[in-house]
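Please fill in the sequence for the structure shown.

STRUCTURE ENCODING:
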């Protein structure tokens, strides 16, 4: 059989192919030749054939038939064969195929080989694709090589140990003695891989984290030597000494300093040195500075150091590189809650990022701008954000409008400003606003009694200009129906009143009923407005005629309204004026907790808490069915998930929120659920304003080695109770009890009956969905008596 072509010739031939079909034909022809050679057990050219197969694999063609040939090459005594064999194993094999177990013995022999390069090949392969079984069998050899004096092998053994720990965490302690002298190594490659190994061990085990905290001074010393050392051609990148090692050390310091005062104190000085001495003209320096900022923000650092870190991020915002600007905005968004005032200093730069051409940067800048809004800057920030709303792409309008509504509701300096701002949003982006914006604005207008004439005049003008924005049209129709008499009488004091006749108002509303732009909901608003005007205007006959026409409408909702309104005119005309009188001031349901003081521009508006629980809202059908499945009967009330509104950023206010309405009487905690490593504990408080309300805090912990993700806790109680489930602190229950998920349940028990509850738990563990049901009946008597 003639000698097969070399790899170079194959590459050259494939590159001459002009079409995909021609290339495929060449590959198939060569694969056929390679298969024939494998069948004839041709040892001479096996290495060459496997090398060609790997090239075809890189092009995306199947090469699985070469797996066993890789094992034969690994078993060869020639280094060139072993090198291609191990490379093929890393590319063509993985732990899902049982074939990989056949090479365990070969790797074990090569780890004890007399040649360091053969040992290095075995370490690389084990560290790349070793399964948990292989790692258990070969961990002892890896640990021996980790103690060797050969720096070439130590760095490879350290990385292989990282893979072993990831696959078999219980083997971590085996490598602990070998880590003692790793950081005293002078070789940068060994240092780098050692820091990677220590980082992995600290992230996976709280005990290791405590053990390695004593290494902080040594790590600080290494980092200081890197900064202060002169030019070293071996490790220099753009004038900075070994930036890869610096970044790794900073990440390890971040883990070691988290939630530890002593460790944080030990690294404050070196972090300040890195932040002030690192060159920022090159990307390498920016990478180190970014890691430094993350470390400063994560540990218990001094306030001055945190301000320095935020100023570095502020400088990043002025960088020409889009990636650096995006990273800076994302980091500032994470820190804005803890260091609000320091981030505020960069407000103008952040607002300028709203004009960036990059959509990712614009979105981050918009989110950060809303996070910076407070009572002092509300007018200026809203001006910028409304300008952004006018000119931004449609994909931003919904989120921007929603953010403006929330900020205006929280920090509005006056009722008029609040109404003007929301009307501006409705006129520019009305089609993109949330569904609840219409009832919320109606409620705001109703409660602002002194602004009724001004508001109805403004909305009437907006309606004359544009009827395409449906939320705006709906609010305008409602207001004209309620306050049409104020519009016609021209009683507006805030601006020059307009002269409008009753017929002109009715013409506009009738136009909405026949407009192609109007949705069925909008037509319902318009018809109701016309009906309401029958008690405010003198044109009753015209209104009767309009209502009777829609009694035969093809829209069932509109037809039903018209028929009922016709009945009001005929049978119940004596009740019409009472039924259609103005709506009373609407009470807004207050959030849970004590009186909330909203900081506004020069005004303080206390909102009195409503001790009643929010009314239960009908859930979507599938969720309701899930709860029925959970409860197995009709004698229970399903729970409603609610989200608490954002509180003002005030330390004192948060403390009051935390303690204001709870009676910290000694109600013993209880374990409600403990199965498969998931433990749910209940702790209890009693709400002071209403002793019939029990506040239950659930604490979910996880003793297994893997996180429980997509965690959802649902609960239901009998009909004699009312239950409200607030938002959880997270949907991930950390492994090994490294944290917990908390969630607050409020139970109204007016009849002081014994508390019973059914719970449903769903989560994902190790890639598999888990669902379980449980009944909790052993509540302590103090929690419900």
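FILLED IN BY: designer on duty
SEQUENCE:
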């Amino acid at each position: 059989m003639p000698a097969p072509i070399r790899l170079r010739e194959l590459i050259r031939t494939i590159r001459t192919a002009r079409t995909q079909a021609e290339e495929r034909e060449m590959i198939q022809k060569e694969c056929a030749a390679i298969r024939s050679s494998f069948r004839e057990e041709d040892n001479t050219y096996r290495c060459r054939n496997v090398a060609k197969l790997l090239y075809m694999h890189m092009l995306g063609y199947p090469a699985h038939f070469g797996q066993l040939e890789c094992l034969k090459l690994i078993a060869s005594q020639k280094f060139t064969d072993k090198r291609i064999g191990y490379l093929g194993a890393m590319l063509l094999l993985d732990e899902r195929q049982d074939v990989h177990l056949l090479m365990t013995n070969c790797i074990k022999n090569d780890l004890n080989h007399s040649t360091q390069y053969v040992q290095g090949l075995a370490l690389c392969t084990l560290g790349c694709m070793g399964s948990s079984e292989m790692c258990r069998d070969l961990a002892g050899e890896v640990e021996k090589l980790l103690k060797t004096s050969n720096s070439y092998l130590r760095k490879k053994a350290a990385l292989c140990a990282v893979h072993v720990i990831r696959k078999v965490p219980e083997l971590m302690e085996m490598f602990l003695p070998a880590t003692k002298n790793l950081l005293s190594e002078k070789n940068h490659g060994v240092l780098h891989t050692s820091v990677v190994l220590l980082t992995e061990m600290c992230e996976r085990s709280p005990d290791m984290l405590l053990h390695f905290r004593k290494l902080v001074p040594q790590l600080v010393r290494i980092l200081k030597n890197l900064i202060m050392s002169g030019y070293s051609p071996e490790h220099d990148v753009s004038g900075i000494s070994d930036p890869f090692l610096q970044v790794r050390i900073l990440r390890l310091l971040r883990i070691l300093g988290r939630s530890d005062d002593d460790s944080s104190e030990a690294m404050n000085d070196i972090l300040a040195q890195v932040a002030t001495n690192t060159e920022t003209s090159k990307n390498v320096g920016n990478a180190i500075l970014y890691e430094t900022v993350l470390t400063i923000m994560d540990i218990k650092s001094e306030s001055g150091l945190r301000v320095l870190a935020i100023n570095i991020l502020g400088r990043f915002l002025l960088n020409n590189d889009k990636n650096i600007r995006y990273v800076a905005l994302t980091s500032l968004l994470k820190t804005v809650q803890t260091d609000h005032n320091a981030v505020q200093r960069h407000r103008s730069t952040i607002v300028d990022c709203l004009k960036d051409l990059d959509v990712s940067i614009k979105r981050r800048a918009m989110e950060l701008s809303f996070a910076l809004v407070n009572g002092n800057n509300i007018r200026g920030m809203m001006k910028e954000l409304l300008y952004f709303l006018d000119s931004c792409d449609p994909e931003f309008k919904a989120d921007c409008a929603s953010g403006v509504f929330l900020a205006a509701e929280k920090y509005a300096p006056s009722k008029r400003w609040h109404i003007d701002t929301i009307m501006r949003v409705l006129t520019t982006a009305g089609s993109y606003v949330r569904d609840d914006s219409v009832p919320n604005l109606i409620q705001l207008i109703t409660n602002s009694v002194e602004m009724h004439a001004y508001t109805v005049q403004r909305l009437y003008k907006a309606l004359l200009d544009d009827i395409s924005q449906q939320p705006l049209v709906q609010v305008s129709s409602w207001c004209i129906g309620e306050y049409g008499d104020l519009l016609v009488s021209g009683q507006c004091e805030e601006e020059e009143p307009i002269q409008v006749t009753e017929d002109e108002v009715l013409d506009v509303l009738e136009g909405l009923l026949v407009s192609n732009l109007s949705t069925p909901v909008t037509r319902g608003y318009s018809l109701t407005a016309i009906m309401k005007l029958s008690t405010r205007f003198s044109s009753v006959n015209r209104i009767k005629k309009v209502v009777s026409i829609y009694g035969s409408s093809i829209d069932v909702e509109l037809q039903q309204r018209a028929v009922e309104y016709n009945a009001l005119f005929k049978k119940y005309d004596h009740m019409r004026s009472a039924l259609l009188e103005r709506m009373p001031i609407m009470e807004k349901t207050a959030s849970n907790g004590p009186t909330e003081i909203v900081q506004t521009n020069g005004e303080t508006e206390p909102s009195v808490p409503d001790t009643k629980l929010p009314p239960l809202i009908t859930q979507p059908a599938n969720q309701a069915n899930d709860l029925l499945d959970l409860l197995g009967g009709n004698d229970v009330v399903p729970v409603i998930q609610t989200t608490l509104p954002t509180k003002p950023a005030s330390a004192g206010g948060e403390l009051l929120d935390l303690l204001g309405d709870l009676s910290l009487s000694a109600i013993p905690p209880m374990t409600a659920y403990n199965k498969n490593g998931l433990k749910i504990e209940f702790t209890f408080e009693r709400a002071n304003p209403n002793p019939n309300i029990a506040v239950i805090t659930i604490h979910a912990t996880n003793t297994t080695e893997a996180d429980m993700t997509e965690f959802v806790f649902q609960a239901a109680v009998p009909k004699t109770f009312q239950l409200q489930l607030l938002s959880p602190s997270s949907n991930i229950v950390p492994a090994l009890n490294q944290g917990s998920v908390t969630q607050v349940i409020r139970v109204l028990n007016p009849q002081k009956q014994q508390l019973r509850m059914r719970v449903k738990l769903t989560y994902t563990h190790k890639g598999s969905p888990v669902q379980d049901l449980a009944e909790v009946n052993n509540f302590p008597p103090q929690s419900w008596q």
